[in-house]
Amino acid sequence: MQPLHSALLDAAAVQLRVQREDLIDPELGGNKWHKLKYNLQAAHQQNQHTLLTFGGAYSNHIYATAAAGKRFGFNTIGVIRGEAHHPLNPTLQFASDCHMHLHYLNRNSYRNKHSAEILRALRDRFGEFYLIPEGGSNALAVKGCQEMLLALEHEFDIFCCACGTGATLAGISLGLQPHQQAIGYAALKDGGFLEREVEQLRCATGAPNNSQWRVEPAYHFGGYAKTSHPLFDFMHNFEQQHGFALDAVYTAKMFYGIFEQIEQGRFPRGSRILALHSGGLQGNAGLTTTHKTRP
């Protein structure tokens, strides 16, 4: 748990701590381990030897699944959105080095990736496998993410996390006390879609509806894995001031949003914010940069 200090935080009378889940493990750190933990146990209990999952070319989930497969003795198949490009970017090169088989789906087919037709074609090609959804997001992942709050020793009012598929926010929302709120900063366009995903994941665990969580849609910087020069400037300044790096796909967008909203007075004075650093630094190389000056 790392406290941050700055003149802005002092002026706003806001306390900001960072939960450094990125330090758990160099390959399986962050929320990805929490999402995978119970899925790996389920695959083992079902005597499955192959994991198949989905993701984009810069997916931290693909990276982590490949690492977990190598470490725990599973074959892995990564179904990647879009066409193959060579040389591979650092994320996919790492996955390949971990002996993950990379299989590409065009974007139209990828949109229907969980359809019976696509899954049947994948099983015809690869045989039996344990299916992990895109981003690792299912009820087992939510259960794992909920555990992130169990060991906390510091009180907080607001929990902030990056939001890609919704499982982390769903899991965190299940562990909140009545006075606490959770905000998921969307890393891609369409916050309404993410809200529906979070609610579906919560329902899959039997949790009732509540208003203690929300998706913040304004800081996606053009969409998934899209960036801007101001975002990279923010990342550089953040690392210089606070001593650790952010990734451009998820955590930088979240912290950019948090600091801008603190500057705007969106958090009450005296707020105690806890922000999740979920890792994913391997995704910084080779990202596209949009030409927008503000998110």
Overview of this protein structure:
The protein has helices spanning 7-12, 31-45, 60-72, 90-97, 107-111, 116-126, 139-146, 167-174, 191-204, 229-242, 251-263, and strands at residues 2-4, 15-20, 50-55, 75-81, 101-105, 130-132, 158-163, 181-186, 213-216, 226-228, 272-277, 288-290. It is of the alpha/beta class and 295 residues long. The strands form three sheets. The chain has a six-stranded mixed beta sheet. Strands 5-4-3-6 form a four-stranded parallel beta sheet. Helix 3 (60-72) runs parallel beside helix 4. It is globular, with a radius of gyration of 19 Å. The two termini are 28 Å apart. 44% of the residues are buried. The model is unreliable at 288-295 (pLDDT under 50).
Number of strands: 12
Sequence of strands across the biggest β-sheet: 1-2-11-7-8-9
Percent of residues in helical segments?
25-40%
Order of helical and strand elements? EHEHEHEHEHHEHEHEHEEHHEE
Measure the end-to-end span.
Answer: 28 Å
How many helices? The count is 11
The overall pLDDT, averaged over residues, is: 91
As a whole number of angstroms, the C-alpha radius of gyration is 19 Å
Q: What structural category arises from helix and sheet content?
A: alpha/beta
Unreliable spans are 288-295
Shape: globular
Strand content: 15-25%
Task: Itemize the secondary structure elements and their pairings.
Elements: E1 2-4, H1 7-12, E2 15-20, H2 31-45, E3 50-55, H3 60-72, E4 75-81, H4 90-97, E5 101-105, H5 107-111, H6 116-126, E6 130-132, H7 139-146, E7 158-163, H8 167-174, E8 181-186, H9 191-204, E9 213-216, E10 226-228, H10 229-242, H11 251-263, E11 272-277, E12 288-290
